[in-house]
């Protein structure tokens, strides 16, 4: 796996961890919601596997390259939104 692909995979993994951590730390979930959050976490790991697969295929597969580009844009936007929310939550004003 080329370095750029490893970076995106690591970023995606960190983003998924951030999403789950943000959701579980800010809200006190009833048991059934906590189970759903765990299921979401499993789904996110499945998406991670698809990202890795698309990264491997992108050189020869236009559809994979296009999907991966769109996914990266969404992932970076999600990361920015989570960072903004964390900054606003920690601001005492």
Tertiary shape: flat
How many angstroms does the end-to-end distance come to?
Answer: 45 Å
Number of domains: 1
Which band does the percent of strand residues land in?
Answer: under 5%
User: Low-confidence runs (pLDDT<50, min 5 residues)?
Assistant: none
**How many strand units?**
0
User: Structural class of the secondary elements?
Assistant: mainly alpha
Protein name: Disease resistance N-terminal domain-containing protein
GO biological process, one term: defense response
Organism: Oryza meyeriana var. granulata
InterPro entries: Rx_N
Keywords for this entry:
93 residues, mainly alpha, 3 helices, flat
Task: Write up what this structure looks like.
- It contains 3 helices and no strands.
- The protein is mainly alpha-helical and 93 residues long.
- It has one domain (3-90).
- The protein is flat and about 50 Å long.
- It starts with a helix and ends with a helix.
- 6% of the residues are buried.
- The mean pLDDT is 75.
